[in-house]
Amino acid sequence: MTIEMDSLSWLYGKPVCRGRSKVRPEDFIVKEQLGFDFAGSGEHFMVKIRKTGENTKYVVNELAKACGVKSRDVSWAGLKDRHAVTEQWLSVHLPGKPDPDLTQFVAEHPGVEVIATDRHDKKLRPGDLAGNTFELRLSELDQPADVVSRLTQIEQHGVPNYFGAQRFGHDGNNVIKARAWGNDEFRVRDKSKRSFYLSAARSWLFNLVLSQRIAAGQAATLMAGDCVQDKETDSWTLVEQVTPALQAQVEQGSVLITAPMMGDNALPTQGEVADFEMQIIEQEPLLLKLIRDNRMRHERRALMLRPGDMQWSLEADQLVVQFSLPAGCFATAVLRELIDEPEQKDGRYANFDQ
């Protein structure tokens, strides 16, 4: 069984407008938002880079050489795509050492700019990220008015909070490997591969539940037994009784209905909702077995995603749209609701919105 993102439900129906994205790196601009200030002093040299046509890990290795340290002494909050223009912070562990001169580093890497430096008392870690802002240019649109109509709907109601195709590897290989691992066909000792496969397994199950909830017309309809999350926190609560006031909060986006990031414990949802979720999840018994065998902790994730600070402009057959997303959310979730674009097979979308 392969992984087909097109098998997942669209909130506003499959797009009718054909178009292209990321024709050039400049057509996809990502700016990282850490959400906190640096201390101004400390063991960690902070470097803000703007890169074009380079991936994060390559730049990390080259920056380490320039600073005279090992690659493991350079860290980041999130990976960023190669086929894009991206801005992000990197931290270099330099205890007792002055700020290095990066002039030669920049000269040798024309695809990388250093746009700011600072000092901090802690290194960056994956996940130390509030979110990202995006600027996308869509081109060769054959029905641009339809895209504008969809943007208006997205601004008001959001998009499905799907995990993007890049979470699942090339042609969904991470999920295919996860199923084989769950079937005891091989063992996975490499820590990074274990993480990739387990993350892909949980993410695909979430996508399936979300897709079926949309298909049932219940993505924004609160039901008794749902678990909901306050927009401002990560905590969730069980809904024992649906009230008009609570449903209104869901429609306003201040309260978010959630779906499972599966763990080895029982679902926290109840009644009809729990039955609905398990009927879908049990369609992937090998992924469920893998998650349980590895004692994953159950979590919840919001069904819907509302991009912030949305703006767009249309000129002939090209449209530029800007928006912000919280960490862990995927720009492809917005893009797939806008245009019908042939799937890229060149790795173009790998990691671009994490």
Descriptive overview:
The protein is α+β, with helices and mostly antiparallel strands. Among the domains are: 36-120, TruD, catalytic domain (Pseudouridine synthase), CATH 3.30.2350; 160-305, Pseudouridine synthase (2-Layer Sandwich), CATH 3.30.2340.10. It contains 9 helices and 15 strands. The longest helix is centred in the middle third of the chain and has 25 residues, at 191-215. 36% of the residues are buried. The model is unreliable at 345-354 (pLDDT under 50).
Secondary structure topology:
Blueprint: E1 20-21, E2 28-33, E3 44-52, H1 56-67, E4 74-76, E5 85-93, H2 103-108, E6 112-120, E7 131-139, H3 144-157, E8 159-160, H4 173-182, H5 191-215, E9 227-230, E10 236-238, H6 244-252, E11 255-261, H7 271-281, H8 285-293, E12 299-302, E13 304-305, E14 308-315, E15 318-326, H9 331-335
Parallel strand pairs: 2-5
Antiparallel strand pairs: 1-7, 2-7, 3-5, 3-6, 4-5, 7-15, 8-13, 9-10, 9-11, 11-12, 14-15
